[in-house]
Amino acid sequence: MKELTRPKRLAPGARVAVVATSGPVPEERLQAGLDVLRGWDLDPVVGPHVLDRHPEFGYLAGTDADRATDLQNAWCDPAVDAVLCARGGYGTQRMVDLLDWEALRAAGPKVFVGFSDHTVLHEAFATRLGLATLYGPMAAGADFVKNTRAQEHLRATLFAPETVRTIASGGTALVPGRARGVTLGGLLCLLAAELGTPHARASAAGGLLCLEDVGEETYRLDRYLTQLLRAGWLEQVRGVLLGSWEECSRYEEIRPLLADRLGPLGVPVVEEFGFGHCAGALTIPFGVAAELDAETATLTLDEPALR
Predict the structure, then answer these.
(1) What predicted TM-score, i.e. pTM, was given to this entire model?
(2) Is the C or the N end of the chain the one with fewer CB within 10 Å?
(3) Which of 194, 212, 216, 272 is catalytic?
């Protein structure tokens, strides 16, 4: 697995576009998030369809075509320095194949921030654009609007990435050890669902794999992990970082499953690393070379996440 191209860091006055590729966005949270971005001396602009709702499927923020158009236009706008997702939910899989990847590549590297459902875009940006991305809080997400730690870690990553080259989580070692590799990952269920699709990686070989999920029963998490194992996707992975399992079964039930499925890989595994759907979620760069130390629960990047 190769390191990916790192976009430029943001500077005061940078224009950031907020788009909705997944579920419907609460207007009050969007406005609160925009106020946070303005407080960082950024210039946020909102995609025209961010507050839309799909006419038939209420779990989608507008039609697939409109959501794809908002993302594409924002990315291809030379005045835009970064694209931030508004919220997660579901829907990115429905629109990702509508994007013009040649046009996105021609627009050059930019900062992309999102998590959860946007695992699909993190994978696609890696495979189609060769671009490093940020798995972090979304502009209209409750955690971004209300949690100081989530805000400040993302802000530092965007403006002064050299200050957060070592990400210390406060987690613990499920399997001890150290490993080097290139970061990747996201929502476990979507990594499993994306197998065999045009934008998915063939495997996680050489990677430091970040996994988290939300609202899943333990047997479903078992299914996703087993699918990745049976597909050979986890062969030669270098290490695993486990984030949050919010609204899933009790962690006392999940932990033995994680040990059962991931322990035989023979690589370091750190749990409760503090990214994903938990309060105060850390921003994790994907596509960068790093070292994982499971005993100290730290991820140290070779270079800052952004140039």
Answers:
(1) 0.98
(2) C
(3) 212
Tokens of 265: 């890989």
Residue 297 has a pLDDT of 97
Q: Tokens 């130390």 sit at which residue?
A: 293
Active-site residue 277, yes or no?
yes
C-alpha distances out from residue 118 to 214, 225, 268, Å: 14, 19, 26
Which structure tokens are listed for 154? 């993302």
Tell whether the torsion through CA atoms of 19, 24, 27 and 31 is positive or negative. negative
Alpha carbon distances (Å) from 24 to 11, 59, 90, 229, 249: 30, 6, 9, 33, 26
Give yes or no: 246 in active site: no
Which residue stretches of the chain have pLDDT < 50?
none
Count of all residues that appear for the chain in the document: 307
Give me the catalytic one of 22, 49, 54, 116.
116
Sign of CA dihedral 227, 228, 232, 235: negative
- In the set 122, 153, 199, 277, the catalytic residue is 277
**Residue partners of 253: CB distance under 8 A and separation at least 6:** 218
Q: Is 153 a catalytic residue?
A: no
Q: Letter for the amino acid at 296?
A: T
Could you read off the pLDDT of 117-143 as tens digits, one per residue? Answer: 999 999 999 999 999 999 999 999 998
Q: Is 260 exposed, middle or buried (0-12, 13-18, 19+ CB in 10 A)?
A: exposed
